[in-house]
Amino acid sequence: MAASPKLPAFDPADPLGIDDLLEPEDLAVRDTVRSWAADRVLPHIADWYESGELPGIRELARELGGIGALGMSLEGYGCAGASAVQYGLACLELEAADSGIRSLVSVQGSLAMYAIHRFGSEGQRQEWLPRMAGGEVIGCFGLTEPDHGSDPANMRTNAKRDTGGDWVLNGRKMWITNGSVAGVAVVWAQTEEGIRGFVVPTDSPGFSAPEIKHKWSLRASVTSELVLDDVRLPADAVLPEATGLRGPLSCLSHARYGIVWGSMGAARSSFEAAVEYAKSREQFGRAIGGFQLTQAKLADMAVELHKGILLAHHLGRRMDAGRLRPEQVSFGKLNNVREAIDICRTARTILGANGISLEYPVMRHATNLESVLTYEGTVEMHQLVLGKALTGLDAFR
């Protein structure tokens, strides 16, 4: 009788052996981004979060460009051309540091750069994408408005043709990541032809981006309003390949995919903090990690964390194969962000009062995820996307 093969050792950091699914190139990308975040973000993030600032954001953007993290899944124009799984792994590592850092990268690459790459003219691509890939120019994405978040079809921002073919834009956008530090904005507006996207240099007369303060979430992130008062643009500022909501919604689907991975990074960071705390914190004469109720919490957290990573990996492989549907992205965002918040909240209970301190990452991740839960599609919107896909009936209206 043949001897049974020797089983690999159980790895508490990878209990399902998910790393076995990754190629050496995938691991190299993950390790590069993890090392960068450990060096450039983790030593400072608590102070940045407490002060509500992201100092040196332009330098950080250039560094992220230097490691190929900006627009990394796009081809050409100085972009890395990485796989969807590699981009997802990068998002996970960035959000394990802080959701605000992942948002910087996600908005730059999956929204602003993706819109220009997918729907722009060759001239627009050549003008903007190489500099954005290198972090020399930061981009933002103007879709959400003060009164129109989940219902972008009724946006009020408008663009009208003027004499000579110029476009004149008027309107307001709200909750725009990177807005006040951006050199270019992709702005969506109503036109006589339907909703169109425009490439707007932020030094255009009439454009301003006042920063939004007094946030209790995503504090280490630049969030702004975009104000467009008779912003005049040349005829070729419009994205030629996008008419209607198909354009902005496809950009959002690409960005939501990154959130599926990124939310698991925040969850992992909080879970790891809870495990280490449970092994060292003593009550009633022994480490609290030795009590059954604490172990039950840790086991449940580990199950949801690694199920979420498996789901993200599966969706990444589908994206790489050209088979990922928007409904499947909604499935991933709905599940993973909800579970990530629950993991953070459970981790907080293990840390007790220490869980609210910025000495630990748990409360910071939990409050960040409250924003991630609702931006780029609220829970309700993703439930309705899946509900329509399951029943064939539209319940949005």
Automatic annotation (TrEMBL):
Arranged from A to Z, the UniProt key words for this protein are: FAD, Flavoprotein, Oxidoreductase, Transit peptide
* Residue ranges of domain Acyl-CoA dehydrogenase/oxidase N-terminal in the record: 24-136
Domain Acyl-CoA oxidase/dehydrogenase middle per the UniProt entry, residue ranges? 140-231
Q: Where is the Acyl-CoA dehydrogenase/oxidase C-terminal domain?
A: 244-390
Please state the Enzyme Commission number of this protein.
1.3.8.6
Q: Which Gene3D superfamilies does the entry mention?
A: Acyl-CoA dehydrogenase/oxidase, N-terminal domain, Butyryl-CoA Dehydrogenase, subunit A, domain 2, Butyryl-CoA Dehydrogenase, subunit A, domain 3
Q: Which Pfam families match?
A: Acyl-CoA_dh_1, Acyl-CoA_dh_M, Acyl-CoA_dh_N
Names of required cofactors: FAD
Q: What general EC class does the enzyme of this chain belong to?
A: oxidoreductase
The terms under GO molecular function for this entry are: fatty-acyl-CoA binding; flavin adenine dinucleotide binding; glutaryl-CoA dehydrogenase activity
Keyword Oxidoreductase in the entry? The reply is yes
Q: Name one GO biological process term.
A: fatty acid beta-oxidation using acyl-CoA dehydrogenase
- Which InterPro entries does this chain map to? Acyl-CoA_Oxase/DH_mid-dom, Acyl-CoA_Oxase/DH_mid-dom_sf, AcylCo_DH-like_C, AcylCo_DH/oxidase_C, AcylCoA_DH/ox_N, AcylCoA_DH/ox_N_sf, AcylCoA_DH/oxidase_NM_dom_sf, Glutaryl-CoA_DH_mitochondrial
Against PANTHER family, the record matches this protein to: GLUTARYL-COA DEHYDROGENASE, MITOCHONDRIAL
The entry assigns this protein to a family as follows: Belongs to the acyl-CoA dehydrogenase family.
Q: What is this protein called?
A: Glutaryl-CoA dehydrogenase
